[in-house]
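tool_call: predict_structure(chain=1)
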Amino acid sequence: MVERAPATLPAAPWTGRSDLAELVAALGPGNLRWVGGAVRDTLLGVPVKDIDAATLLHPAQVMERLQAAGIRSVPTGLDHGTVTAVLPGGPVEITTLRRDVATDGRRATIAFASDWREDAARRDFTINALYADPQTLALSDFFDGLDDLAERRVRFIGDARQRIREDHLRILRYYRFQARFGSALDAQAEEACAELAPMLKGLSRERVGGELLGLLALPDPASTLARMEQRFVLRHVLPELAAGGIAALGALVGQEEAQDVHPDPLRRLAALLPPDPKLAEQVAARLRLSAAQRKRLATAAARTDASQGAETDPRALAYRLGREEAFDRLLLAGADTAPLARWQAPVFPLKGRAIIARGIEAGPEVAQLLRAVEARWVEEGFPPEPRIATLLDEALGAAGR
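tool_result:
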């Protein structure tokens, strides 16, 4: 295919940034083009988060020119030709044009290139291989990415199987991009992902976990996950998937939308798993999640079956587990989270010294009485402090004091 004739990128807030103009001037005319997500998302009319650039210059030249222009740079990935320019409006990753020398499905050995089409050919999907001239905003489209974008079709560049063999993670990237942008399915991509899914087992768990959580963070990934299950792809990523996990995810997405709760990928991962805290911890460990994420996933997995409804009073649950954890458990159970809106958990007002002042020797009995009074206080809906004295009297009486 040949480079498409000159369509242009619509002007957007980021394309008019003065610091980007300074960056372009520093690297010299014709040496840089915007590429990837910023171009794609601008064409789709969605907010742009990150800005990436491709350049004819080698990393050392990029850093030299940025330094001469007074622009700070960070060598974030020199082995892959990437330098990050630190700008007032946000960082920009600048990567030298590349071609693959060797790939093994997990990592690539690259060589620098000088041809824009050659650089585009090593990218994953046609919609990610669109370049924009920073001065004229003229678009370069070597593989009909504009047509695919118009059709909302996620299509591999060239042979899908070959692209996946170069980087096995592209299977999960395909499904993430399909869930985010796609409507028209690409038969070649679907067949290649299903056929080569066993290759996912050779990837680092961090990369798999990151892609899975990225997919689950999208507005409504349930139909995509269902297709992954039907094509026997999901079993290679999440063999612990519960029998009704996809349906539970769909129900959770519905609850989040109905209750205007922001989507959360960890909560959605919990929906896919059986309500088994030990199993959840094993999944979190395998996906290399953080300690905080592991704890939260296990807490969500300690839920009761959704058919049993809410496990306890929402505010009591939030006090006991934490606000975020309570939202997880309530939404997974299909319960109302409204009682937690603008509610802050109060501080238990009773201290051990108040019990000691009642003649109880410092020690385990003080802690037992504190727990007993706190449990009643939570059960009664966190009554004001005067009620604490009565609850303490009752606890002391029950203890024969």
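agent: The longest strand covers residues 72-77. Proceeding to next step.
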